[in-house]
Write a structure and sequence with these properties.
Layout (H helix, E strand, L loop, with lengths): L1 E2 L3 H9 L4 H12 L6 H7 L4 E3 L3 E6 L4 E8 L4 E9 H4 L15
Parallel strand pairs: 1-5
Antiparallel strand pairs: 2-3, 3-4, 4-5
């Protein structure tokens, strides 16, 4: 899978260095995947959850952080929609959140 907006990972761990290794590991693991359906995600990441709108929620750094990504299975792309602490995650709707949407 290709991560469309890798810079969001770098930006996040620049301000949250305790999750740098975990996010880099997640990124490198994702690059090796060729998912075609939601079941593939949960098979490879047994703590991940798939939700509506072709999204998946990943636990990062022992569940200290959460990452929500939208997947385009046909094109092999992942779009990061949210990275935050567990407390921040509790305040968002995983099916619609898009912290990295470009402002018009």
């Amino acid at each position: 899978m290709n991560i469309y907006n890798k810079g969001t990972i770098v930006d996040y761990y620049t301000t949250h260095p305790d999750c740098k290794n975990a996010l880099e590991k997640w990124y490198n693991d994702i690059l090796t995947k060729k998912w075609k359906k939601p079941n593939n995600v949960t098979k490879d990441f047994n703590k991940a959850r798939t939700i509506k709108n072709n999204r998946a929620i990943f636990e990062i750094n022992g569940n200290d952080y959460r990452l929500i990504a939208e997947l385009n299975y046909d094109k092999g792309w992942i779009f990061i929609k949210f990275i935050g602490t567990h407390a921040q995650y509790d305040k968002v709707d995983g099916e619609t959140v898009d912290m990295y949407k470009k402002k018009k």
